[in-house]
Amino acid sequence: MHTPEKLRGLSDIYRFFRKNTTPIYFVSPTAYNILGLGQWIQGFQYITHFDSFDGGHFRVTNPQQNSEREFSSMEDMLNYLLSHKESVDLFQENGGKGKILTVMFDEKTEEIAERLGLEIALPPAELRTHLDSKIVTTQLANEAGVRSAPNLVDVEASSYKELTALAAEKKLGDKLVVQTPYGDSGKTTYFVNNQQDWDKNADKITGEKLKVMKYINHIPGTVEAVATRCGTMVGPLQTDITGYEELTPYKGGWCGNDIFPEILQGEQRDKIITMVKAMGDKLYEKGYRGTFCFDYLVDTDDGEVYLGEINPRISGASPLTNLVTSKYGGIPLMLFHLLEFMDVDFEIDVDEIQKRWADFGSWTQLVLKHTEDQVRMITKAPRSGIWRMADDDSISFVRNSIDWNNVSDGHDAFYLRVYGAGDYSYLGADMGIVVARGRMQTDDRQLLPRAEKWVKAINAEFEYRTLEELETPYIPIDNVRKMI
Asked: Are strands 151-155 and 60-61 parallel, antiparallel or unpaired?
């Protein structure tokens, strides 16, 4: 039996993926999270629910939905896609074996993959769920010597009085941030400053195990990293774009990122990278390997750096991470995740490779959520591809594009459509994503005018019909709010 030789550097890694014979599938609502990765990997394909490219992406398969169906979660949608006859036929055409990448999955996904003879190239669902708890994350960080903002975890409160009594013991102050263990994009983070704030959120807080934090004036950011057998490799730092009412209906909700080389130079930057490496090494020790997202907080009053939370998965930070590491560093970070699951031995110098993306251009991604609390049928939606903004702030479609590499200057942007004509919009739906060169947010966390112009212009490209105008009104039972 032939034993593959150990990969010992980037040349070996490039050659390995260029000659790869193992089918690799990214299965998700859209291709966005790791769009463009197929340029590096032979045999890479996407299976998605939304046809963002009108059939124009040669690596994307969109199984046709043959009946009206409500999806209750991303996992539910993923399991449908994996089990679909068109997907199964594709797997069989490619030899019946292969690796699966995705964002969210559960134990049922693992059962489907095993039945199909496929391997999910991610840590087990049970481990991911365990680590995704904000309480567990904080406890692991403490073990790794990674500081969190002053807090107490694994507590319960049935009243505002009880909450403030708990906070007083830890001297957390009167302005509190309360989180339940699980939740994404800020949807289960509550700011409680008084009885009124408690009353507004009490039904979501009571009966839950809680993490209670001191509120700090801060800059939120994120960084994607990969925990490997050779150590933890850290991607470029990003700042979060959160809570803008033009982009999201959720207070504190995530709606994009800026990435630029000047983020937190010097001691703060070094400290964040050290924290991420320590956290990644701790995760690997606990059996977790591969990509994860580390959310950090920088206290603007004293400059201290803290862990916010961990997302143990491919995440919303993945697109800009892979864009920058491939375009400026010569290799997308995601390849190192795949190496951990590709049945090949490798030896790499993580610090040397990490230096490759020390300098890069500035980019932004904006996630446009539906901010109106009404359900409407979309009759027209902007196309995926390159759009250009004129001097009068109007935009026009320039050309089809299957990723953002053709964004030439600050007047252009790549738009990825999620919801299109015939779909229904609803509060919090991820309608689409804008990727552009340059920043969209100021240092003091205000949307730049160019961001507001792009959001307004893209939203103006949508047309709707109200439920009253439809012959058969649509009443959604449940909807998947998160698509990336």
From this structure: unpaired
Q: Cα(333)–Cα(354) distance, rounded to whole angstroms?
A: 9
Backbone φ and ψ for 246, nearest 5 degrees, come out as -70, -20
pTM: 0.92
C-alpha to C-alpha distance for 27 and 21, rounded to whole angstroms: 19
In angstroms, the first-to-last Cα distance of the chain is: 41
Taking the C-alpha atoms of residue 146 and residue 294, their distance in angstroms, rounded to an integer, is: 11
Residue pair 370/428 in contact by the 8 Å Cβ criterion: yes
Give the Cα separation of 241 and 254 in Å (integer). Answer: 6
Round to whole Å and give the CA distance between 295 and 277.
13
C-alpha distances in angstroms, 365 versus 256, 311, 446, 454? 5, 18, 15, 11
Q: What is the pLDDT of residues 400-449, one digit of tens each?
A: 999 998 899 999 999 999 999 999 999 999 999 999 999 999 998 899 99
The burial of 145, by beta-carbon neighbours within 10 Å (0-12 exposed, 13-18 middle, 19 or more buried), is given as: exposed
- The domain spans of the chain are 10-121, 150-214, 217-357, 363-469
Given the DSSP bridges, would you call strands 176-179 and 210-214 parallel, antiparallel or unpaired?
antiparallel
H or E segment and range at residue 17? helix 10-18
Tell me the CATH class for 150-214.
alpha beta
Topology, domain 217-357: D-amino Acid Aminotransferase; Chain A, domain 1 (3.30.470)
Q: Which CATH architecture has domain 10-121?
A: 3-Layer(aba) Sandwich (3.40)
Neighbours of 165 (CB within 10 A): 11
Contact 429, 481 (CB under 8 A): yes
Q: Determine the pLDDT at residue 1.
A: 44
Q: Which two tokens stand for residue 246?
A: 């033009």
Among the listed residues 305, 233, 293, the one whose alpha carbon sits nearest the alpha carbon of residue 265: 305
Distance CA 49, CA 80 (A): 9
- Using DSSP's 3-state secondary structure scheme, residue 452 falls into helix
pLDDT at 98 over 90: yes
The span from the CA of 59 to the CA of 61, in Å, is 7
Of all residues in the chain, what percent carry a pLDDT higher than 90?
83
Q: Tokens in use for 323?
A: 């864009």
Backbone angles phi, psi at 78, to 5 degrees: -60, -45
Q: Among candidates 308, 450, 427, 263, which has minimal Cα distance to 366?
A: 450
Write the single-letter amino acid at 429: A
Element containing residue 125 per DSSP (H, E):
helix 125-132
- Contact between 243 and 253 under an 8 Å Cβ cutoff? The reply is yes
